[in-house]
């Protein structure tokens, strides 16, 4: 039982840090409110359903990355750095999006293995993810001059 709880803490910690990075990246790209709302809804859906929602979540990540590529969204931190850096930042967005999806899906599984009911697991995962996304947004707008909202 102790090992299961340690595993769930690992997953929750990883989920929190990945959420911070995704929140920072969305803020750095000055993502439209629709991207923020969709990301929030997808993370809530993943927290509720778990690994069965991975396909929908990955589709969302692909859509957000493609929208960024098509709209030529340039994050503040790479503005003027050239196409290679911009392409790398899109790849980073793809990687972080997948990391969030998979970390949340596996955290849901870890929460199911310990003594939590569905509502408790959902509330913990939604809170950790939401706090991480918001903290990433705050960190971007507070610590990087000229970026964020």
The end-to-end distance, rounded to whole angstroms, is: 44 Å
In N-to-C order, the SSE pattern is HHHHH
Total beta strand runs:
0
Mean pLDDT: 82
Q: pLDDT under 50 segments (min length 5)?
A: none
Strand content: under 5%
Estimate nothing, just give the exact number of structural domains. Answer: 1
Measured as a percent range, the helix fraction is over 70%
The gross shape turns out to be: elongated
Which structural class fits the helix and strand makeup? mainly alpha
Total helical segments: 5
Largest sheet: none
Please give the radius of gyration in angstroms.
Answer: 16 Å
Describe the 3D structure.
With 149 residues, the protein is mostly helical. It has one domain. Helices cover 79% and strands 0% of the residues. It has helices spanning 2-28, 33-49, 54-70, 83-113, 118-143. Helix 2 runs antiparallel to helix 5 (118-143) and helix 4 runs antiparallel to helix 5. The chain is elongated and about 50 Å long.
């Amino acid at each position: 039982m102790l090992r299961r709880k340690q595993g769930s803490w690992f997953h929750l910690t990883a989920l929190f840090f990945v959420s911070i990075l995704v929140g920072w990246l969305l803020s750095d790209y000055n993502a439209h409110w629709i991207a923020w709302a969709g990301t929030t809804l997808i993370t809530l859906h993943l927290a509720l359903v778990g690994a069965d929602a991975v396909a929908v979540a990955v589709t969302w990540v692909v859509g957000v990355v493609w929208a960024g590529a098509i709209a030529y969204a340039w994050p503040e931190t790479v503005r003027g750095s050239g196409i290679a850096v911009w392409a790398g930042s899109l790849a980073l967005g793809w990687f972080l999006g997948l990391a969030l999806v998979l970390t949340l899906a596996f955290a849901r599984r870890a929460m199911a293995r310990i003594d939590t009911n569905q509502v408790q697991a959902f509330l913990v995962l939604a809170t950790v993810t939401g706090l991480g996304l918001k903290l990433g947004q705050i960190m971007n707008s507070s610590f990087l001059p000229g970026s964020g909202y």
